[in-house]
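[audit] Reproducing an earlier prediction to check determinism. Same input, same settings, fresh worker. If the tokens differ from the archived copy the diff job will pick it up downstream; this log only records the rerun itself.
[audit] input (253 residues):
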Amino acid sequence: MDDETALLRGIVQDPHCDVRRLAYADWLDERGGPADAARAAFIRLQIARVRDVATATIPLAELHLLNEFEGRWRHGLPGAIRDRWFVRYECGFPAMLECDAGLLIDAWARAPVLLPVETLTLHVGAVSLAWLDLRRPEPMFPLRYLRVSCDPPVGSRLMGVLLRLGPFPRLEDFTVRDEFLSDAALDGFAPDPLFPRLKTLSFAGCNLTDDGAEALAESAWVGRLERLDLTGNRISPDRVEWLRRRFGPALVV
């Protein structure tokens, strides 16, 4: 393993450690290219801004570096998603990523994607046969927020694909929107061991019925969630009341 890979793996595995990020900035300075020096300066500026709680605005120097060099920084990213994603940087590294699910999964299959992404939004057009062989990438993003939006709908295979990416030891918020997602998708969907910290769960706009409502009402999710959004599903009023008794104010319908 080369020095850069080791440094990036350390950042992904310990995403809130500034020491690891600053060590990578030092390594960039030692490598010596103009884009490397700019990236190193950018990392230090963003870390300093986060540490200074009195700083309410983004310094012009940080914006200048981002505008001038960010295109070159992307050259180290998977080619399939390099120019077809939305990214937001925090402490010098991509922390928020929005992209096509197929492109990202293809990138994972080719090589590790060493990014400390904590907020991931995936747009799913279809689940290909190749996805059936999907295995958890190593290392996986240190996700805290995961949103999956399907258009056109995918249906029953979707949750199986997503669950194979787990466990998600840091995930706090999980949203799935797929109007073909049925009750069967809840099979094997439980807090432990996949989602030990999950507090917000949304299946709004899916296709859950009374059977899905019963599965949730009898599941280990009761007492674990601070918000359960089932808006727009096909759940009867009496099952909604049962869910409300089980989940209390956490339930949104």
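[audit] rerun output stored. Observation attached for the diff report: The helical segments are 3-13, 18-31, 34-51, 60-73, 101-110, 157-163, 210-217, 237-247.
[audit] end
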